[in-house]
Amino acid sequence: MNHPEQKSVAVINAHAPFSSPKGKDALDIALIFGSYEQDIALFFQGDGVYQLTDKQDPALIQQKDYLKTFSAFEFYDIEQVYVCGRSLKERQLPGQFHIDNVTVLEPAQFAKKLADFQVIFRF
Predict the structure, then answer these.
(1) For position 19, what pLDDT does the model report?
(2) pTM attached to this predicted model
(3) Please, are residues 83 and 52 in contact by the beta-carbon 8 Å criterion?
(4) What is the mean pLDDT of each run of 10 residues along the chain (123 residues)?
């Protein structure tokens, strides 16, 4: 439940997981807000949907696997995870993810849900 002084926060992930530090930065922000029991949601669109795909091995490109940390969302009370259905279709990705409780939304629903948040961070 939100307290009057709390703001609802959305974090948009729009970049592939290991092409830049943006995905890790987005995760860190979400975990920080989650640890303070803020109303936090994660949104994935564009190449950001690749952060949710299963069976990635970042060790092959000498990267640390920050995606494993997504499994800690429940511990941080991060329960709202949304992915753009059009982004999945454009990349011919199935709706199977390495975490549970991901909601696939079509673009209009995605935009409407995003508009519900007071603060938006885009990575």
Answers:
(1) 77
(2) 0.88
(3) yes
(4) 75 90 92 92 97 74 70 89 97 88 97 98 97
- 22 in Cβ contact with 67 (< 8 Å): no
Sequence-distant (≥ 6) Cβ neighbours of residue 120 within 8 angstroms: 9, 10, 11, 12, 114
| 99 contact partners, CB below 8 Å, separation of at least 6 | 52, 70, 71, 73, 81
Pair type for strands 40-44 and 119-122: unpaired
Mark residue 63 as left, alpha or beta (left: phi above 0; alpha: psi -120 to 50; beta: remaining).
Answer: beta
C-alpha span between 29 and 80 (Å, rounded): 15
What tokens appear for 109 in the block?
């629903």
Q: Mark residue 52 as left, alpha or beta (left: phi above 0; alpha: psi -120 to 50; beta: remaining).
A: alpha
